[in-house]
Design goal:
Layout (H helix, E strand, L loop, with lengths): L30 H5 L9 H15 L9 H21 L2 H11 L23 H19 L3 H28 L2 H36 L1
Helix pairs in contact: 2-3, 4-6, 4-7, 5-7, 6-7
């Protein structure tokens, strides 16, 4: 990249090493490159947060409030890019979705079409979907009968299964092969169902608690 201020090679950092002018972001850079992290699912969250905060201080728009308009635009663009990278990589599910998408693996379910492209959308099996419907019915029945113990037991089971699914997703992404990535995408689609059921369980638990103690 050539520095817009001194027209010299600006390098890869936020500022030109020759004149110190803040440079526009590389729009093609992936989230790992933006934060200076290795491209791996196993992200060191503490290191990532430290990099995010350090870089944010360097490019924050407040520092360039009175600067050249090009520097102000570069500051804003870099801040947006940094926030997007940190928001994605700090969350295990978003990170998995992002990495699978970059690998060209698409994820879908019965209502969603995936992330674009023409490839097949990987989604849970029909047997899994039927099981999710049955679990949803069980949650509703437990809530309707005011069975708080049953709701807690189901919540614990769903959390355990979601955690196991997340572990398989991480293993598949780290393996990096076509079949393992496809399997990780299917697991990620399944994880969405567990998350939905956990959200419903939390609402049921809250309602049962209010009816019991209210």
């Amino acid at each position: 990249m050539i520095c817009w201020s001194c027209e010299r090679e600006a390098g890869v950092g936020p500022a030109c090493p020759a004149c110190g002018a803040l440079q526009p972001p590389d729009e093609a850079a992936d989230h790992f490159t933006v934060l200076g992290l290795p491209a791996s699912y196993a992200v060191d969250i503490e290191a990532a947060e430290g990099a995010y905060k350090r870089l944010s201080r360097q490019v924050h728009p407040d520092r360039f409030a009175t600067a050249d308009p090009r520097a102000r635009r570069a500051s804003l663009a870099r801040t947006v890019q940094l926030n997007d990278a940190w928001r994605t990589l700090k969350d295990p599910v978003r990170r998995a979705t992002y990495m699978l998408g970059r690998a060209g693996v698409e994820i879908g379910d019965e209502n969603r079409t995936g992330q674009g492209g023409s490839g097949p959308k990987l989604k849970p099996s029909q047997a899994f979907l039927m099981e999710m419907l049955e679990l949803n019915d069980e949650l509703s029945e437990a809530a309707a009968s005011g069975n708080g113990d049953r709701l807690l037991a189901m919540t614990s089971m769903l959390r355990a299964r979601a955690s196991e699914t997340m572990a398989r997703i991480a293993e598949g992404i780290e393996a990096g092969t076509g079949a393992r990535l496809d399997a990780a995408a299917q697991e990620l689609a399944s994880l969405r169902y567990y998350q939905r059921l956990l959200d419903q369980a939390a609402m049921h638990e809250e309602r049962v608690a209010e009816e019991t103690h209210g």
